[in-house]
């Protein structure tokens, strides 16, 4: 077994070493920022009484966007978890659709008002529908990997979860099966420090989630999940290897949940204030901006331009979505079964 | 015409489905070696990598089948004994049953989970269970439990063709006990229809699986005593064929429901409620149920096992009382 640990690249690296083009870097910043601003607007709508529930990914945008960008959008599959707004945006979900989803509107492509917000899914975009039960998606991703192997389709599946989910049996069963059959699955764990109120020490006896890979004889890596570029640089080779028959990979992105668990949670009950302050200094958006500015990749004006574009997109999405139709009450009865031949 | 047992009906239908559609594959414990009941015997040699041994992890058998079905394949999962399916309950209840619903039909799961169920084989608490009530309580999953080899063939074929998750229950006591002349390809059928197996005007017995055979034997005994029974084979336990249930109840005015699952919360309660709500005025007697006792599990010792299992004598006794009411 080999275990690679990727450290955050040093800040004097140049654009060539990022392995990301200028356009890709722009995309990365755009999607990370869009995820954050959408989450902020969603929380505002919740506080205004317009949205009953918000579960967000603030602090995990780099971990999400960097990883999703390592996949082939339109070809590869994503089996994400409920914090992964950033991944879904990379896979084509629009700001307007995210707002439809928040409000449970009739035309929300994810579930048409049937699921709580942030339970993503789109067959067309190859985003696998998910539930609130954690880690079940690891087995679905493994099944997709098995199917692709049987059909000899050169695709990769990335499935993600929080570190709390790695204690569940489905985590073990998925990694075990994927390892036995060398399936093209990236098991991606966003270690954001907390499973609601439980810190890492209460969840596992290991320092790194990636150490769990040893039990399945698969490769693993731990990466600084606050750094989107480092994330991309770690996930991309794992994806390429999986696509070429190298088998599954376990990647742990060390990040931080900057917000409470959900709009209903009060994190002051369990989270030390000082810890939050320390991690806030490593906010992935600030970090990214600082790096690309220091390295002279983008002038400040370009980044400001992206900021303005995102602000406008989020404002439009929220206003537009609020005017969209709600589901009819009796819509609750439909689609229990798929009709034969439909 | 070929004489075929239940297990031969299952095996031949699996073989035909695997030959007809290369999107099908079999996943389960010991399936490469043919399975503990020999349902998949010879299939690994014939279909190679499409017959896959799983680790001993039932949640993974179901969860992986969900993923593969979502991708577009036609997984046929085997849970070695129905008693072990419960560690996959979460994948069936929280995921498979809601996949189509929660996406408003955008995604769906053409998958089958086959599993041997039922008692009378000295299997004790973990090789005898009736699990159908748990899973019939989940809209979104279809539950099928045939009794005769020809129905095993036609319904297994229909289950594999169905775009929804189907739990296909095979009564293990009948695997080699029940034999039938079977003609050619499986008959075209749809899931969700019951069948009147025997027609009689005095009372209706509703049953499925092994108990259908016991009910037919009881009906035969009663016929000798001048009591004529209608016997309904439910075939599909979810969704129930309410029409056939109600028609038969109305025609005879007396209903006896039989299952080996324990009484409380069993399917008999739901069937009785359907009849009470929609055919009350046709009833000439209270609805009767013959079922397993409300104890946690089937005991191992044959004396206690016999005590647990409903059989033709117990059914005939209840039917006699009902006819005399």
Strand and helix layout:
The complex is a heterodimer of chains A (342) and B (325).
Chain A: H1 15-18, H2 22-47, H3 61-68, E1 77-79, H4 85-90, H5 95-103, H6 136-151, E2 157-162, H7 169-180, E3 185-191, E4 194-195, E5 198-199, H8 200-203, E6 219-224, H9 228-243, E7 249-254, H10 273-280, H11 284-294, H12 300-322
Parallel strand pairs in A: 1-2, 2-3, 3-7, 6-7
Antiparallel strand pairs in A: 4-5
Chain B: E1 2-5, H1 6-20, E2 24-28, H2 43-47, E3 51-53, H3 58-71, E4 74-78, H4 89-95, H5 99-102, E5 112-117, H6 132-136, E6 142-144, H7 149-161, E7 166-171, E8 179-182, E9 195-198, E10 203-207, H8 210-224, E11 229-233, E12 236-238, H9 242-252, E13 255-262, H10 267-278, E14 288-292, H11 302-308, H12 312-324
Helix pairs in contact in B: 1-7, 3-4, 8-12, 9-10
Structure description:
- Chain A has 342 residues and is of the alpha/beta class.
- Chain A has helices at 15-18, 22-47, 61-68, 85-90, 95-103, 136-151, 169-180, 200-203, 228-243, 273-280, 284-294, 300-322, and strands at residues 77-79, 157-162, 185-191, 194-195, 198-199, 219-224, 249-254.
- In chain A, the strands form 2 sheets. A 5-stranded parallel sheet of chain A has the order 1-2-3-7-6, with helices on both faces. In chain A, strands 4-5 form a two-stranded antiparallel sheet.
- In chain A, strand 4 (194-195) and strand 5 form a beta hairpin.
- In chain A, helix 2 (22-47) crosses helix 12.
- With 325 residues, chain B is of the alpha/beta class.
- Chain B contains 12 helices and 14 strands.
- Chain B has a 7-stranded mixed sheet with strand order 3-2-4-5-7-6-12, sandwiched between helices. Chain B has a 5-stranded mixed sheet with strand order 9-11-10-13-14, with helices on both faces.
- In chain B, helix 9 packs across helix 10 (267-278).
- The longest helix of chain B is centred in the first third of the chain and has 15 residues, at 6-20.
- Chain B is globular and about 60 Å long.
- The N and C termini of chain B lie far apart (43 Å).
- At the A-B interface, helix 6 and helix 7 of A face helix 3, helix 4 and helix 5 of B.
């Amino acid at each position: 077994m080999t275990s690679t640990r990727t450290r955050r690249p040093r800040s004097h690296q140049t654009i060539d070493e990022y392995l990301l083009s200028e356009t890709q870097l722009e995309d990365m910043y755009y999607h990370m920022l869009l995820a954050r601003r959408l989450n902020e607007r969603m929380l505002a709508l919740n506080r205004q009484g317009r949205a009953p529930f918000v579960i967000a990914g603030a602090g995990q945008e780099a971990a999400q966007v960097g990883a999703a960008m390592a996949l082939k959008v339109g070809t590869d599959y994503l089996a994400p978890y409920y914090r992964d707004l950033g991944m879904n945006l990379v896979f084509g979900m629009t700001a307007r659709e995210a707002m439809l989803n928040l409000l449970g509107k009739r035309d929300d492509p994810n579930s048409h008002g049937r699921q709580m917000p942030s339970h993503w899914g789109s067959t067309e975009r190859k985003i696998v529908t998910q539930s609130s039960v954690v880690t079940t998606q690891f087995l679905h991703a493994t099944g997709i990997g098995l199917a692709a192997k049987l059909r000899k389709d050169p695709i990769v599946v990335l499935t993600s979860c929080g570190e709390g989910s790695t204690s569940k049996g489905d985590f073990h069963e998925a990694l075990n099966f994927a390892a036995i059959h060398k399936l093209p699955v990236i098991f991606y764990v966003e270690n954001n420090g907390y499973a609601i109120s439980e810190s890492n020490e209460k969840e596992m006896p290991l320092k790194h989630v990636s150490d769990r890979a040893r039990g399945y004889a698969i490769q693993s890596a731990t990466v600084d999940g606050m750094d989107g570029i480092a994330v991309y640089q770690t996930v991309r080779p794992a994806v390429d290897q999986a696509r070429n028959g190298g088998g599954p990979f376990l990647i742990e992105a060390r990040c931080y949940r900057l917000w409470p668990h959900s709009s209903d949670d009060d994190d002051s009950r369990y989270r030390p204030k000082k810890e939050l302050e320390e991690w806030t200094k490593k906010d992935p958006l600030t970090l990214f901006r600082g790096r690309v500015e220091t390295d002279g990749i983008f002038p400040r004006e370009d980044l400001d331009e992206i900021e303005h574009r995102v602000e406008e997109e989020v404002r439009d999405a929220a206003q537009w979505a609020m005017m969209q139709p709600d589901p009819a009450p009796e819509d609750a009865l439909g689609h229990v079964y798929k009709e034969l031949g439909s | 015409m070929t004489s075929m047992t239940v297990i031969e009906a299952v095996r031949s239908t699996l073989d035909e489905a695997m030959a007809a559609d290369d999107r099908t594959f079999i996943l389960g414990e010991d399936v490469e070696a043919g399975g503990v009941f020999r349902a998949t015997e010879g299939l690994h040699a014939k279909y190679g990598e499409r017959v896959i041994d799983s680790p001993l992890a039932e949640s993974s058998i179901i969860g992986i089948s969900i993923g593969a079905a979502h991708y577009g394949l036609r997984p046929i999962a085997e849970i070695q004994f129905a008693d072990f399916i419960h560690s996959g309950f979460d994948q069936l209840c929280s995921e498979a049953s809601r996949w189509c619903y929660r996406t408003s039909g955008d995604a769906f799961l053409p998958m089958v989970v086959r599993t041997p169920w039922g008692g009378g084989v000295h299997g004790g608490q973990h090789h005898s269970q009736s699990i159908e009530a748990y899973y019939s309580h989940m809209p979104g999953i279809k539950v099928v439990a045939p009794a005769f080899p020809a129905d095993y063939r036609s319904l297994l074929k229909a289950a594999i063709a169905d775009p929804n998750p189907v739990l296909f229950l095979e009564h293990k006591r009948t695997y080699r006990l029940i034999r039938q002349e079977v003609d050619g390809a499986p008959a075209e059928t749809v899931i969700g229809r019951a069948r009147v197996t025997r027609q009689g005007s005095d009372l209706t017995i509703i049953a499925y699986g092994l108990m259908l055979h016991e009910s037919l034997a009881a009906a035969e005994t009663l016929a000798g005593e001048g009591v004529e029974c209608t016997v309904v084979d439910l075939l599909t336990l979810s969704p129930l064929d309410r029409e056939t249930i109600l028609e038969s109840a109305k025609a005879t005015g007396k209903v006896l429901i039989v299952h080996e699952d324990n009484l409380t919360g069993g399917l008999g309660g739901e069937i009785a409620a359907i009849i009470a709500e929609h055919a009350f005025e046709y009833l000439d007697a209270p609805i009767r149920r013959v079922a397993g006792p409300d104890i946690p599990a089937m005991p191992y010792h044959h004396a206690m096992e016999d005590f647990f299992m409903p059989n033709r004598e117990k059914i005939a006794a209840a039917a006699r009382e009902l006819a005399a009411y």
